[in-house]
Amino acid sequence: MNTEQLPLAVHLPDDETFDSFFAINSGAILGQLKAFIQHPAKTTNGFYLFGQESVGKSHLLHASCAYASQLGLSSLCLSLSEIKHLSVEVLANLEHVDLICLDDLHLIAGNKQWQQGIFDLYNRVIENNKKLIIAGNNSANSLLITLPDLVSRITWGYTEQIKPLSDSDKIKALQLHAKLRGIEMNDETVKFLLNRLSRDMNHLLESLDILDKASIKAQRKITIPFIKEVLF
């Protein structure tokens, strides 16, 4: 299958890898995902990730595809927020991809056609011994999915919950992302960001990206006075 024929595939951010992921139980999650991707499917072909908004589900899907590529496997990441308005035919032949990642499963809670389409894809993935990672905002039994067979398929595979970070964990997560960009940010600077910005991790990381680009352009370190100039 030529995945270039799927223009709706999510473009993988360069910085969303397993190395840049931080969570309360990140060691366990990353270990399970790596083993699932790397080893032949023996007991299940599916993995379900769930958690609130901005806990890192999309990050892990992107990272899973990047890891699969490192192993020489074909991969594809699709967001249901982008494709749910299309025909389910967009899922045709995806079972030939080694690893398929589907984001935002909760968005098809009231769509019987898409639920059936994903269930059928899941079955084709099993038949072809490929792998499927799905992400949603709640546990499989609380998704309001009306197709029992799809819920059964999801619960049949591995399941992992990603829990929200505490403020102290968010400080560590921001410092990790900053360090990977070659930026050193002390606790005081990061606490200033947390106190002045939304505590939503996506927003915090977007702000870090703005600061990084601004600091490179201005040839200045990211300090509290510099943050005030750039963001406020």
Give a summary of the structure in a few sentences:
The chain is an alpha/beta fold and 232 residues long. It has helices at residues 26-38, 57-70, 80-83, 112-127, 148-156, 167-180, 187-196, 201-218, 224-231, and strands spanning 46-50, 75-79, 99-103, 131-136, 158-161.
Write the layout of secondary structure elements.
Blueprint: H1 26-38, E1 46-50, H2 57-70, E2 75-79, H3 80-83, E3 99-103, H4 112-127, E4 131-136, H5 148-156, E5 158-161, H6 167-180, H7 187-196, H8 201-218, H9 224-231
Parallel strand pairs: 1-4, 1-5, 2-3, 3-4
Helix pairs in contact: 1-2, 6-7, 6-8, 8-9
Describe this structure in words.
The model is unreliable at 1-7 (pLDDT under 50). The chain has a 5-stranded parallel beta sheet, sandwiched between helices. The chain is built from 9 helices and 5 strands. It is of the alpha/beta class. Helix content is 46%, strand content 11%. It has 2 domains: 3-161, 3-Layer(aba) Sandwich (Rossmann fold); 167-231, Helicase, Ruva Protein, domain 3 (Orthogonal Bundle).
The assigned structural class equals alpha/beta
CATH topology of the largest domain: Rossmann fold
Low-confidence stretches: 1-7
- Can you give the helix content as a percent range? 40-55%
Major β-sheet, in short? 5 strands, parallel
What is the arithmetic mean of pLDDT?
90
Helices, by number, come to: 9
SS elements, strand count: 5
Span of the ends, CA to CA: 49 Å
| Name of the CATH first level of the largest domain | Alpha Beta
> How many domains is the backbone divided into?
2
Shape: elongated
The CATH architecture of the largest domain: 3-Layer(aba) Sandwich
